[in-house]
Amino acid sequence: MARLLPFFCSSLSSRLTASPHFYLRSLTTLPLVHTMTDPVESGKRIAAHQAVDEYILPHHKAVGIGSGSTVVYALERILQKPELHHIVFIPTSFQSKILIIDGGLKLGSIEQYTDLDVTIDGADEVDAKLNAIKGGGACQFQEKLVAEAAKKFVIIADYRKKSEKLGTQWLRGVPIEVIPMSYKAVQQALQTRISAKPETMALRMAKMKAGPVVTDNGCFVIDAHFGPIADPKSLLRDIKLITGVVEVGLFCGMAEVAFFGMEDGNVSVLRS
Ligand SMILES: O=C(CO)[C@H](O)[C@H](O)COP(=O)(O)O
């Protein structure tokens, strides 16, 4: 686990380019380090462990697994609980598929399992009404698909993600997945056709590769920052109506609960 941490402390883009086998080997073969000095990593872990303990239960049959660095701690907890190992786990990205496989857990697909007991996932920002910005790892389409298939959608995050209003903590913008040939048209429409104007907007570029980030679905991502978002649902609706938009990283009215690992070592739980 200790070797796993520097990898996940690195930037989102390097997360996408580094080999997932690196941390999965660490997850399954290295002794776990139980004392953590980094409050962010420790926050992710305590939130993830408590959420798994409360929401992933031995009678469950199919569970969705989100993407990102916090989800690794959910997998860590699942691996510690043999009574959960009969469950089929449904990934939301290449990253979470490899996590499930290398953890020796049962892998299913969203085509096989359309009704899930619960989906557990990280987030980039969560407001007081449990609306969330997601897609920092460019996985928002599959994450939304798998979250919508679940009876319960559970968010796990560290204290930095907790906010009163979306757009005030996560300043990189709302991730918008688009069909590649449409990215210019979508950028133009974002400036002219929706009521909330983006303050900043950029095509997400890859690191260690010339050109844009390409999602697991072969699409591009535009990050559009709108400042504090007054009405996340109506912004979501407006953006989705733009031709070329595949999915928007605004998850409105979906989460049943969010677990935030706080700096003081406690977990703050926000329920709907
Ligand atoms: O939405 C996501 C990926 O598309 C992640 O869940 C989100 O970016 C949070 O990541 P992390 O747990 O690494 O902070």
From TrEMBL:
It catalyses: aldehydo-D-ribose 5-phosphate = D-ribulose 5-phosphate. It comes from the Eukaryota. Its EC number is 5.3.1.6. One of its GO terms (cellular component) is cytoplasm. Belongs to the ribose 5-phosphate isomerase family. PANTHER family: RIBOSE-5-PHOSPHATE ISOMERASE. It comes from Jimgerdemannia flammicorona. Pathway: Carbohydrate degradation; pentose phosphate pathway; D-ribose 5-phosphate from D-ribulose 5-phosphate (non-oxidative stage): step 1/1. One of its GO terms (molecular function) is ribose-5-phosphate isomerase activity. InterPro entries: NagB/RpiA_transferase-like, Ribose5P_isomerase_type_A. The lineage of its organism: Eukaryota, Fungi, Fungi incertae sedis, Mucoromycota, Mucoromycotina. GO terms for biological process: D-ribose metabolic process; pentose-phosphate shunt, non-oxidative branch. This is Ribose-5-phosphate isomerase. Keywords: Isomerase.
